[in-house]
Amino acid sequence: MDIRPWEAWLRRLAQKAGKEHLLEAPPIEVAEDATRDVERDREERYAAFVAGLPELYRGMTFGTLTDITGGFTAPESIARMWADTYPDVPAGLFLYSKERGTGKTHIAIAIGHILASRGFSVGVIDVVALLSRIRNGFEDKHPSVDVERIPSGRDVLILDDLGAEKQSAWVSEQLYLLINTAISHRVDLIVTSNSTFKELGERMDDRVVSRIIGCTDLVLFNGVPDFRLEQHKRRRAV
Ligand SMILES: Nc1ncnc2c1ncn2[C@@H]1O[C@H](COP(=O)(O)OP(=O)(O)OP(=O)(O)O)[C@@H](O)[C@H]1O
Ligand SMILES: [Mg+2]
């Protein structure tokens, strides 16, 4: 066998130290185990993400967006690109349309599927449902949700339907705690809403809106149809 000079030198050195066996040792398996652990972590995270979704949201992937519009909608393209380049993104996303049923939630969850399948930790919060859960706990004098703890350990937090909740000083405070904590933990936010920043500003604490503006890029769902209506028309046409 052709041994190069540095290999011979290494061998002599190992012999001297009585460690020659190390040179013959098979490649260490740790690397492979580590890869397997990373892979298992990734699969577990994805399973946890899907398990935590309401039934209706589980199938909300980019693959299940049907082609009613005759091609990709602009928000869909932006969202796909954002998901593919994450975490190298400049900011989170604020998915806005005045009209209902334009696919904001579907697209936010589709991004969640991609990121969770890549091993990122993604949380989904239905804002109205969350506030009602906390409120119920509150009335029993046993708050059931610690809003400040929700974002911890997350990479991305999807806040679905912000602005649809009934407003009060208490609601404002809860939202401030939630959003401020997320931002201070550098969690990336994806917000869906039917309210403009201005409308949100009129309804909730300025501090909340200012933070959201600072950490998200606006994606307008302009000219996108109400897909619920489209689904309804299709069913009637059958
Ligand atoms: N591009 C699309 N093609 C076909 N169906 C779609 C598309 N986008 C969304 N949908 C479907 O249309 C319905 C409404 O979408 P979604 O709930 O995401 O709307 P939304 O904008 O979040 O509505 P809201 O403002 O009421 O919260 C869902 O069943 C969703 O799966
Ligand atoms: Mg929605």
Q: What this model shows, in words?
A:
By secondary structure, the chain is of the alpha/beta class. It has one domain (41-237): Rossmann fold, CATH 3.40.50.300. It is built from eleven helices and five strands; from the N terminus they run H-H-H-H-H-E-H-E-H-E-H-E-H-H-E-H. The protein has helices at residues 5-16, 20-24, 30-51, 55-58, 74-85, 104-117, 127-139, 169-184, 197-203, 206-215, 227-237; strands at residues 92-96, 122-126, 156-162, 188-193, 216-220. Helix 8 (169-184) links the parallel strand 3 and strand 4 (188-193). The chain is elongated. The mean pLDDT is 88. The structure holds adenosine-5'-triphosphate (ATP) and magnesium ion (MG). Magnesium ion (MG) binds at residues 104-105, 160-161, 192.
**Sequence stretches where pLDDT stays below 50 over 5 or more residues:** none
How many DSSP H or I helices? 11
Helix content: 40-55%
Name the structural class: alpha/beta
Strand content: 5-15%
State the fourth-level CATH superfamily: P-loop containing nucleotide triphosphate hydrolases
Globally, the shape reads elongated
Ligand inventory: adenosine-5'-triphosphate, magnesium ion
Query: Mind telling me the CATH class?
Result: Alpha Beta
The order of strands across the largest sheet is 2-3-4-1-5
Main beta sheet: 5 strands, parallel
